[in-house]
């Protein structure tokens, strides 16, 4: 990727902004530290020099000019970084380690506050070379016109200032260079990831639904985005596969009733009019149409539930009431088949959901149980709450479902051999699974007591 394209990426711009802010912040911080440090140093020098001046002034008052000369001479010889100069009104040097009084008119002398000056003076260094050095001094006048200069060599401070300035500039340059290098690296890395995502999405939009985004080993936000996109693509592929299977199943399973209706109608048209035969054909046609309408309604209910119940208002629903209403609907069928009902409903079972959808799911489970349960058997319906869940189970004593087929029976239009002789479309358990997913419930199938029959369990999350 070219630098021009990199410069337009958000990662590079954010990095550049961070580099600028960090550089400015570092410069301000170092400047503040330098000013504070030099301010403290100036105050210490002023305090030391002022104390020295007070001591020499007191010495002059006690011992006169001769005593002051001896005191200045001793102090000048003791520390060459402490500067002293004692001079008569006529300009004769009486004592000190400076050869001449700083010229007030010279550019090398700068007055500070009252009585304080900053000036350059010459001094021989360790390499025997004479250099200009910076000094800070206090000037006082003693009667009768004797001038005294007491100061301190502060050239080291000037060196430190230059070094600090150079350090700040070098640091800022390094921060900018390293920041730009890091920004280019991060921008290239992010750009490669985004480019890979775009290429994968282009392939998917071109029709390759099996294409997936390379996740890699990172744990940044782009990796999480790739994982989410892959999960979304898996879901889309599953939905499209399900739609294709539904279309194929509809074409296969609805062909027979449509063909039967057409055959009956063709035969009715070909023969002469017979009211009884025509009545029978119409009744069979109405029955077939009712079955088709029921199939399409079931498919629509499944699609709506799998979409999360869009447009359906959810609220607190008592599963106890739903189950009892469904049992009332199947009461006559249970009596006709002499099926005993064992109710073990110990709780109201309040869940958040859509009552109509829950009623459909429970009715489908009861319909299957009654349809396959033998006459004189027992149907057990249990409802209880445990560990934050509302658990509904329906157990029959029918033929059950083989373990290897328990996952397949949830697919649309799937009917096992044992169900071929009974009416139905093979959509009942598909609808139950869709409603369970819509309500965040766990649906499971297992054998009944002693391995007989089938136990269907729905575990719903309870309401706190």
What does this protein look like?
With 464 residues, the protein is of the alpha+beta class. It contains 10 helices and 13 strands. It has helices at 3-7, 10-78, 155-205, 221-253, 255-270, 275-306, 319-329, 331-336, 355-372, 428-438; strands spanning 82-87, 93-96, 109-111, 116-124, 130-142, 146-153, 315-318, 340-345, 350-353, 378-386, 389-396, 442-447, 454-461. A 6-stranded antiparallel sheet has the order 2-1-6-5-4-3, with helices on one face. The protein has a 5-stranded mixed sheet with strand order 8-10-11-13-12, with helices on one face. Strand 12 and strand 13 (454-461) form a beta hairpin. Helix 6 (275-306) packs parallel to helix 10.
Throw out a few tags for this protein.
464 residues, alpha+beta, six-stranded antiparallel sheet, five-stranded mixed sheet, 10 helices, 13 strands, 19% strand, rod-shaped
Taking the alpha carbons of the first and last residues, their distance comes to 54 Å
What fraction of the residues are assigned to beta strands by DSSP? Answer: 15-25%
Structural class: alpha+beta
Largest sheet: 6 strands, antiparallel
Shape: rod-shaped
SS field, number of helical segments? 10
Helix content: 40-55%
* Poorly predicted sequence stretches spanning 5 or more consecutive residues: none
Output the helix-strand order.
HHEEEEEEHHHHEHHEEHEEHEE
Gyration radius, in Å: 49 Å
If strands are numbered along the chain, what order do they take across the biggest sheet? Answer: 2-1-6-5-4-3
